[in-house]
Design brief:
- It is an enzyme of class 3 (hydrolase).
- Belongs to the glycosyl hydrolase 10 (cellulase F) family.
- Its EC number is 3.2.1.8.
- Keywords: Carbohydrate metabolism, Glycosidase, Hydrolase, Polysaccharide degradation, Signal, Xylan degradation.
- It is a single chain.
- Strands 1-2-3-4-5-6-8-9 form an 8-stranded parallel beta barrel, surrounded by 5 helices.
- α2 links the parallel β1 and β2 (39-42).
- It has helices spanning 4-9, 27-36, 48-51, 61-73, 90-93, 97-114, 149-160, 178-193, 214-222, 241-254, 289-300; strands spanning 14-19, 39-42, 76-84, 121-126, 165-170, 199-202, 205-206, 227-235, 258-263.
- α6 runs parallel beside α7 (149-160) and α9 (214-222) runs parallel beside α10.
- The chain starts with a helix and ends with a helix.
- With 301 residues, it is of the alpha/beta class.
- The chain has 11 helices and 9 strands.
- The structure holds ligand G3I.
- Ligand G3I is lined by residues 43-44, 86-87, 126, 171, 203, 232, 272.
Length: 301
């Protein structure tokens, strides 16, 4: 097939992009979006600061805009993210203890209920594990409400939207390392105890190399009985960019429970990684070598 989405669909997968509501009036941007992708993720619009700017007062305008764009394309919509220690609204940043825990769970319930039946997969919890060698949780006000906050969030999300796949999402999990193993152990424990979890997202914000065990790391999670998804892919520009993109694509295709790939933006100028040119389309919207290598990898399967 001749587009990313149609090529991924040949194996029952999706190929998605993170999109911004404020860019949907740009015809170059929406032209590429409508042509190439069959999944969308809101880059910021469904986060806590956007959806609950003051406690108990919800604003779904940006998120709904992304949802309707996705629906108009017949695309899957990934929800991102119900709980994250960053982009907490100011009122939540200054909370702690039982009051914060109650606010967290109310947030999960309210947002997942608003989008009930419309979201393919939710990043229920984002980036809750520490970088480095500890394999443990990241310190945050969320974590200080008690170690069970993650399972409580997954249970609340399941109750609110039983048909959405519920994902844990993180970065620096691109191979077998202390952080990915900490997450692996949590997922294994959740599956053993019946805590609802359906998928693990591997953000895959990559530099100029990729760990040799990228695919086997995906596979070990899949073997626990969860789907895996590449959720925020971007790769530093350099001699290896096209090859690294192809390696990630082939790894997903080789893992039967890898259900799709999302790139974190459309054109290089849309990326949060300013100056790194990490995406598949240049600033003018032209296809880069990395685009062609992904398309070829999808069609070789
Ligand atoms: O909307 C305001 C605007 O009103 C204001 O004038 C402007 C001035 O700074 O800020 C705008 O908000 C910015 C927002 O992006 C929308 O552009 C925030 O400052 C900025 O912090 C925010 O950055 C986002 C970042 O998450 C926040 O941590 C990036 O767009 C987004 O790509 C990035 O995405 C994260 C994923 O959610 C989780 N994984 C890592 C990934 C990259 O950091």
């Amino acid at each position: 097939a001749s587009t990313l989405g149609a090529s991924a669909a040949q194996s029952g997968r999706y190929f998605g992009a993170a999109i911004a509501a404020g860019k949907l009036s740009n015809s170059t941007y929406t032209g590429i979006l409508n042509r190439e992708f069959n999944s969308v993720t809101p880059e910021n619009e469904m986060k806590w600061d956007a959806t609950e700017p003051s406690q108990g007062s919800f604003n779904y305008s940006g998120g709904d805009r992304i949802l309707s764009q996705g629906q108009s394309m017949g695309a899957k919509v990934r929800g991102h993210a119900l709980l994250w220690y960053q982009q907490e609204p100011g009122w939540a940043q200054s909370m702690s203890g039982t009051a914060l825990r109650n606010a967290m769970m109310n947030h999960v319930t309210q947002v997942a209920t608003h989008y009930k039946g419309k979201i393919y997969a939710w990043d229920v919890v984002n980036e809750a594990f520490a970088d480095g060698g500890s394999g443990g949780r990241r310190d945050s006000n969320l974590q200080r409400t008690g170690n069970d906050w993650i399972e409580a969030a997954f249970k609340a999300a399941r109750a609110a939207d039983p048909n959405a796949k519920l994902c844990y999402n993180d970065y620096n999990t691109d191979g077998v390392n202390a952080k990915s193993t900490g997450i692996y152990n949590m997922v294994k424990d959740f599956k053993a105890r019946g805590v609802p979890i359906d998928c693990v997202g591997f953000q895959s914000h990559l530099g100029t190399s990729i760990p040799g065990d990228y695919q086997s790391n995906l596979q070990r999670f899949a073997a626990l009985g969860v789907d895996v998804q590449i959720t925020e892919l971007d790769v530093a520009q350099g001699g290896n960019q096209a090859n690294i993109y192809a390696t990630v694509t082939r790894a997903c295709l080789a893992v039967s429970r890898c259900t799709g790939i999302t790139v974190w933006g459309i054109r290089d100028s849309d990326s949060w990684r300013t100056g790194e040119n990490p995406l598949l389309f240049d600033n003018s919207g032209n296809k880069k070598a990395a685009y062609t290598s992904v398309l070829n990898a999808l069609n070789a399967a």
